[in-house]
Amino acid sequence: MTAKSSAAGQSGPTTGAIGPDTYARWRATRLGAVTEALEHRLVSDLVGHVSGKRLLDLGCGDGLLTCRLATPGAWAVGIDADDRMLAAARARASRGGVNARFVQSRIEQLPLPDASFDVVVAVTVFCFLTDRAAAMTEAVRVLRPGGRFVLAELGRWSAWAAIRRIRAWLGAPTWRAAHFWTAAELCQMVEHAGVSVDAVSGSVYYPPVEWAAALLAPFDRRLGPLTTGAAFIAVAGTKTSLE
To answer: Looking at residue 23, which CATH number applies to its domain?
Structure first.
């Protein structure tokens, strides 16, 4: 399941397949542009300095975040199961001269060596997986001891989540399959996998309405510690074990 962009992770289609065109249409809206910029800023803040590091982006979608994180000099790999998304990601990296490669795979079975990355990022992808335990084990397996892990997901207690649940009840397949998280649940899952959490933050505190996004986006960083009410929740930490 691809879920990197807010096209899937924040507003999203209620029916049909999610593809690169879905992402492009979402980003072309004011609501989409503001929302995704806030999400990417939060993830980038939690990732920190990446120059010279090996970075893995799980569920990379069309590669926008992968390329942004790789730009400061990191060597990046994006993983996705959708070949259409990977084609778009490769084209993006080529246009930008970004040092990134993209691999087709499921997160539950990564074709990568143990401890091969300094940073692993997963953004709005675990919410759509059925075997989250296997995916988390794989994500931490390929991260070196002392490496940085950032997991960002859909918040449970937000106006966005409420609207998505209604869409699920009405039969929207995207949201019927989705799981919405609390910060405590994310921390528990990450720590159980061998990552010591050192940062928890929220983003996107407005409802999915353009005027609200324009009004509240400037206060987003200030609201970050209040994860209840955030449509987007991220946790970050350091791998402390070899398991």
So the answer is: 3.40.50.150
